Amino acid sequence: MRSSALAEWAFALSVQFVGTNAQADDAPATDLPVVDEPAGATFSGSTATLLEWRNNNRNGDATDDNYADALVRTNLLLDAVDNRITVRINGAGFASRPTGVDRQNYLRLERVTLELFRNLGKIRTQLTVGDFYAQFGSGLALSLRRVDELGLDVAARGGRLDAFLWDDHLQVILLGGLTNSANIEATRLRFTEDPDDALGG
């Protein structure tokens, strides 16, 4: 597709895959080693790739003209009933990049999340360790979220505890950590360091 306003050519590709270790009762036995996972554990993932060529957009700034970029986002999920591990890998590559803006080729582990779901009597809990999103007051008090797969993405790295009481009529949230953003600015594709702002509540 082509966007004349940005004077660029772009191609996007998205792929999803799902697998499970569940075995039917009548399935033939094999000699393959059995992975030590709870019954019904599911492995799934998705990957999204964006390829662009950015022409001269005639804005008077030569640092964002005539270069190619590739953005890759891969998500992996291992769901074992009441335990869940999520991993996100981000990558970026550039060709013929102009000088003046810090655009870096990189491949990094951007998100790692462990979620534990437990019932404590009549209280249902979810403990999240690693990277997580949060939004309070419709985003006015706090907004850590991913806008889209290849765009703005700000999370917190730390811990979060959700408790659901009285048949889920009341939710109590405790969280703390440091802000962790995707390390590429969405408009000019400039590399940015993690802000590491502390938060808690």
Structure classification = mainly beta
Count of the domains: 1
**What summary fits the major beta sheet?**
10 strands, antiparallel
Q: Tally the helices: what do you get?
A: 0
Q: Helical amount among residues, as a percent range? A: under 10%
Proportion of residues in β-strands: over 45%
With strands numbered from the N-terminus, the spatial order across the biggest sheet is: 1-2-3-4-5-6-7-10-11-12
The SSE string, one letter per element, is: EEEEEEEEEEEE
User: What distance lies between the first and last C-alpha atoms, to the nearest angstrom?
Assistant: 44 Å
Mean pLDDT: 83
Q: What is the tally of beta strands?
A: 12
What are the low-pLDDT stretches, counting only 5+ consecutive residues below 50?
A: 1-7, 24-38
Radius of gyration: 21 Å
Cα shape: elongated
Structure, described:
The chain contains no helices and twelve strands. By secondary structure, the chain is an all-beta fold. The chain has one domain (2-200). The strands form two sheets. The chain has a ten-stranded antiparallel beta sheet, with no helix packed on it. Strands 8-9 form a two-stranded antiparallel sheet. β6 (106-120) and β7 (123-132) form a beta hairpin. The chain is elongated. The model is unreliable at 1-7 and 24-38 (pLDDT under 50).
